[in-house]
Amino acid sequence: MASFLGKAFSEIARFAGNVNPVTVEKKKKNVVKDLRSMEPLFKHYFAPKGYKYEKTDVGGVATEIFSKKENGNDKVILVIHGGAYISRMMFYYRLLNKRYSKASGGGTVVHFEYRCAPEYQYPCALEDTLKVWNWLVEKGYKEENIITVGDSAGGHLSVNLMMKLKEAGRKLPRAAVLISPWLDMTASGKSYVDNYKVDPVFGIRGQTPTAEEVKELLMKSELYMWLGDNDRKNPYISPVYNTFDETYPPILVTVGGNEMLLSDSQTLVEKWNQAGSIAKIHIAEGMFHAFNIYQLFPEAQKALKIADDFIKEQFFGNK
User: Fold this and answer.
1) Would you place residue 39 in the very low, low, confident or very high pLDDT band (cuts 50, 70, 90)?
2) Span 51-71, mean pLDDT?
3) Are 234 and 186 in contact (CB under 8 A)?
4) Superfamily of domain 4-316
5) Who contacts 94 (Cβ-Cβ below 8 Å, separation ≥6)?
6) DSSP letters of 237-279?
7) Which comes out higher in pLDDT, residue 299 or 220?
8) Strand 51-58's sheet: what is its strand order?
9) 150: how many CB neighbours lie within 10 A of its CB?
C-alpha cells in the first residue's frame, strides 16, 4: 500500500499533471505550455560545498557538468531528462546530482538539453544524445565508465542510444537506470487498459475503456508530436519491438505500479533477460509515472536507494 505522502503526491500529479486527451480537451489545457511551465523556476543552480558546476556547448547542445573539486574519479553518470519530448531540463534533476556522484564514488554527472517537440521531431533528440556521448568519449571517458540514467522520454533515449551504438558496432555504456521508460508508442501493453482508471498522470479515475478506445484516445494526444510521420512500430520509435541480445549491458528499471506505461517496462525487462543480458525491475505499488525523481516521500527514496545500489554494484562490484 502506498504511504500517506505517496498518495498525496499522486493526487498532486492528478490535479496538476494529468495529460489524458479527455482531460486536456475538457479543461482546454495547452499541453506544451503546461509541460514547460516549470522551466523558468530556479534557473540558477549553485553546487554544494566540495563540488563545482559548469556549463558548456557541445555542438549546439547546452550541457551541464557537475563534479567534485577534489578526489573525483573517472566515472560518469549521463542523465537524460524526460518530459514527453516536449518539456526541457527542469531544476529538480539537478537536485539529484550529489546523490549520483556519491553513488559513482565521486563521479561526474552530466546533463544536456536536447531539442524537443513541437519545434523538433525524431530523430533530433537522439542526434543530440549521440553528440554528447561522442563528446564524452572524445574527452577520454571510457564507455565502460559511463552509466546512463533516464526517466520517461529520457529512458526511451537511453535505450535508443544503446541501439544506435550497437548498430554502429561501437561500445555501449556500462549500464543504464531507466525510470518509468516510455517505450511503446502503439500503447499495446495490458497496463494501458488495466491502469487507465488509477493512473493519475495519463488516465481518468474510475474509467476503464477498451483497448481500442485507449489507443484511439492516445493516438490523438499531443504527447506524440515528437514522432512525426514515423511508423509507431519502428524499433527506434517503440523499442519494445527491438531485438536485443546478450551484448547489451545490465539495466535497472523502476516504475510505478499504477502507471499505464507499466507494461512498457515489463516487456523490455522480459525481452532483455530472454536475450541473455541482465535486467532488474522494481515496481512500486500505488505509484505514478517517474515518481522517484521527486524524492519527497518513502517510495521515491526507496527507488532511489535501489538505483544507488545498482550504480555502485555496476562500477565497483559487491564491495
Assistant:
1) confident
2) 97
3) no
4) Alpha/Beta hydrolase fold, catalytic domain (3.40.50.1820)
5) 45, 64, 66, 111
6) T-GGGSPP-TTSPPEEEEEETT-TTHHHHHHHHHHHHHTTS-E
7) 299
8) 51-58, 61-68, 108-112, 76-80, 146-151, 175-179, 251-256, 279-284
9) 26
Averaged pLDDT score across all residues of the chain: 96
Please identify which residue in the block is written with the cell numbers 523558468. Answer: 40
d(CA 20, CA 223): 9
Q: What is the mean pLDDT of residues 10-17?
A: 92
Residue 183: closest CA among 287, 90, 253:
253
152, 4, 134: which is closest to 61 by C-alpha? 134
DSSP state of 83: S
Measured between alpha carbons, how far is 85 from 92 in angstroms, rounded to an integer? 17
Give per-residue pLDDT as tens, 268-289: 999 999 999 999 999 999 999 9
Supply 281's cell numbers. Answer: 525491475
Instruction: Give the strand pairing for 146-151 and 51-58.
Output: unpaired
